[in-house]
Amino acid sequence: MSTLVTLHVYDVTSSSSATANATIVNINKLFKDTMGMGGVFHCGVEVNREEWSFGFCDHGTGVYSCKPKGNTMYSYRETIPIGVTSMSPYRLRQTIATLQLEWPGSSYDLFARNCNHFCEAFSEALGVGPVPSWVNSLPNFADGVADATTSATAPVRMLGDQMSEASASVSSWLSGLFQTEEDNEDETSTNETLMKRAVSIDSVRQVS
């Protein structure tokens, strides 16, 4: 038996701010509809009249299901057919159970492991897809920038640490040098004082 698999796409309008939600919708219209580049989207995969997706939670699996096109946390946008699977209902339940173990809610990451990454993994397991790249293009881009920034700043941080260590060494050396000079000055001053006392004693003896 073959079953159609579809991808339901939503605008991410889960903010408590109406202005922020409207901004997201406008960004998606500009970058996806006008420029074809993607945007800020939530996705769920529908198979056998049930929609599956992934989200954050402190404990347990982040994989959950809802009525197709019915995720009330977001604003439904469009549906994209991504293939036909021949997976049996029994095998499908096993696959979902495996994914529930592999995708704990605490592993959620906005850029590197989000709902769209889950949809890609689920689609691959079903033998369908791929999921259109534009649904996750913005998070993937942001994640790449973050990695590049981390890689670029690492040598700078190392250089800064080395400079700090060098500065500390120079400072310690200078402090020792100044202390030596002060000790020498103190020693010279002490010797001069002793010599003056010796001269004074001799003078007293001569007068006596």
UniProtKB/TrEMBL annotation:
Lineage: superkingdom: Eukaryota
A GO BP entry: proteolysis
Keyword Hydrolase: yes
Annotated coiled-coil segments of the chain: none
InterPro entries recorded: PPPDE_dom, PPPDE_sf
Keywords associated with the record: Hydrolase, Protease
Gene Ontology MF terms in the entry: deubiquitinase activity
Domain PPPDE as annotated: residue spans: 3-164
The keyword Hydrolase belongs to this UniProt entry's keyword annotation: yes
Family label: Belongs to the DeSI family.
UniProt-recorded name of the protein: PPPDE domain-containing protein
